[in-house]
Automatic annotation (TrEMBL):
InterPro entries: FAM173A/B (IPR026170), SAM-dependent_MTases_sf (IPR029063). The chain crosses the membrane at residues 6-26. It comes from Candidatus Kaiserbacteria bacterium GW2011_GWA2_49_56. One of its GO terms (molecular function) is protein-lysine N-methyltransferase activity. It comes from the Bacteria. Keywords: Membrane, Methyltransferase, S-adenosyl-L-methionine, Transferase, Transmembrane, Transmembrane helix. This is DOT1 domain-containing protein.
Amino acid sequence: MDSLPFQIALLLAQVCLVILAGFFLIRPIRMLIFGRPDAPPVPTPRRAIFHIAEALAVRPGDIVYDLGSGDGRVLLQCAKLEPSARFVGIERSFLLHYLARFRAFMSGSPTNVSFLRQDILLADLSPATKLYTYLCPTLMNQLLPKIEHETRKVRVVSYVFAFKAKRPSRTIHISSPRARRDTRLHVYDF
Ligand SMILES: C[S@@+](CC[C@H](N)C(=O)[O-])C[C@H]1O[C@@H](n2cnc3c(N)ncnc32)[C@H](O)[C@@H]1O
């Protein structure tokens, strides 16, 4: 029978080992599920979707892309409001891509909505007439030259984050009773 101090030392060593393993494993597991953590998987609040749909002003024939479409909530809601437009969600995270497809299935598999698992910086944006983004400052700045180069007469609506090198044509303030400051929706017309 081992002594009590020895057993405590053994237990402490095991706890340290588990913490160490967790430290090295959490990052690869996070990467597998969410992809690189440059724009965190935070969904657009439901109360903002109405303002986004209004700012996008989707018309029949429009092709709307959500760049980093997460669980697909924005596109699926917009598709209900304008069934004659097409909606494409591009998402890098394996888990969120399949969650969006599952949500599309649960809402009756609308034929005008599709989700692609792809990196937005590598995707072909040329068919888009409207773009929605909720990303981060770095990605916004990387996207600007790509949008200017690949698209024609596109409207971009960005939740929270603005382009550093382009002035918005309109900024919409979305207030919330719980938030201390308004959230901004930046509208750009290229
Ligand atoms: C803040 S969330 C917004 C999700 C969704 N658009 C919404 O409004 O609910 C940003 C999303 O962008 C995705 N993302 C980040 N970088 C990406 C990239 N390079 N290519 C594709 N998706 C990316 C993340 O996985 C995350 O789901």
